[in-house]
């Protein structure tokens, strides 16, 4: 594996890594909010058997830094950072994957630089405003301003609570029983998410979630002509399957693959099924 730091236009240093076949077509992987790669644990090495695979960390995530007062983070800023990652690895064009919030980032890239994309693979994500449909209602969206107010007023206390809660067995048990297909997932595959969340600055998380919850490109989906495989989890409660159905319908060259029993983390639940479908799609394109 090759690791490097990519410097953005404002001097922020972003961590990125490369694995796989150096002379092959490239695949670029974009994470979800508060993630640093756990979702690609199986898919990335499988893709690396055939492709050059690039994975990077957003500002304030994993090994990447964030500067100043956290105003320089957001979906569109991440999309511009993604362009710098393409440039740093000298990618003329690539297949672009996004999971969860990474779908929003990838779609912004598709609008800004369609000539640099061979294909798109949005995985368990939305084209915008993800809190509007969380668990089938907008309760989280309505509660968000109050939670943001608490974090701004009591940042130190909020951080302590956030870090301790992410490390609690009760929190893991709840997520494993309600948010994922517990009979299809192994703890060692899901635990890295909680480990990363516990170390993340809650102010960055809330600032980014505030941006993502207002961001949408639904009206512009018909402008994206990049061949796209939309992957949805049949039982995804974070981004319900009807959002993926609509995305695939509005994209001129979109097709939908619904993962049986899959949740928001389908790539680590139904790994073989997704790997086979993705490789078939990339080969066809």
Explain what this protein looks like in three dimensions:
With 285 residues, the protein is an alpha/beta fold. The protein has a single domain, classed as Rossmann fold (3-Layer(aba) Sandwich), CATH 3.40.50.1820. Helices cover 42% and strands 17% of the residues. It contains 10 helices and 8 strands. It has helices at 43-48, 75-88, 101-112, 139-153, 155-166, 169-178, 187-199, 202-214, 241-250, 271-284; strands at 2-7, 13-20, 26-30, 52-56, 94-99, 117-123, 228-233, 254-259. An 8-stranded mixed sheet has the order 1-2-4-3-5-6-7-8, with helices on both faces. α9 links the parallel β7 and β8. α2 packs across α3, α4 packs across α5 (155-166) and α4 (139-153) packs antiparallel against α8 (202-214). The mean pLDDT is 93.
Condensed summary:
The chain is of the alpha/beta class and 285 residues long. Helices cover 42% and strands 17% of the residues.
């Amino acid at each position: 594996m090759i690791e490097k730091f990519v410097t953005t236009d404002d001097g922020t240093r972003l961590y990125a890594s490369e694995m796989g076949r150096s002379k092959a077509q490239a695949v670029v992987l974009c994470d979800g909010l508060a993630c640093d790669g756990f979702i690609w644990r199986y898919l990335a090495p499988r893709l690396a058997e055939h492709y050059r695979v690039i994975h990077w960390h957003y500002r304030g995530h994993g090994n990447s830094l964030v500067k100043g007062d956290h105003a320089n983070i957001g979906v569109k800023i991440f999309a511009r950072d993604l362009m710098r990652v393409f440039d740093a690895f000298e990618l003329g064009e690539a297949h672009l994957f996004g999971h969860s919030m990474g779908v929003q980032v990838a779609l912004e890239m598709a609008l800004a630089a369609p000539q640099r994309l061979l294909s798109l693979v949005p995985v368990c994500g939305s084209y915008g405003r993800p809190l509007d449909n969380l668990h089938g209602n907008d309760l989280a969206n309505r509660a968000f301003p109050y939670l943001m107010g608490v974090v701004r007023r009591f940042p130190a206390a909020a951080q302590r609570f956030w870090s301790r809660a992410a490390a609690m067995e009760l929190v893991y048990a709840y997520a494993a029983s309600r948010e994922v297909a517990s009979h299809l997932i192994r703890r060692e595959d899901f635990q890295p998410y909680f480990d990363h969340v516990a170390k993340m600055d809650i102010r960055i998380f809330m600032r980014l979630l505030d941006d993502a919850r207002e961001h949408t490109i639904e009206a512009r989906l018909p402008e994206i002509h990049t061949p796209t495989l939309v992957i949805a989890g049949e039982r995804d409660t974070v981004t319900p399957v009807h959002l993926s159905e609509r995305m695939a319908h509005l994209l001129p060259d979109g097709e939908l693959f619904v993962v049986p029993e899959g949740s928001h983390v389908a790539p680590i639940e139904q790994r073989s099924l997704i790997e086979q479908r993705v490789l078939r799609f990339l080969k066809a394109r």
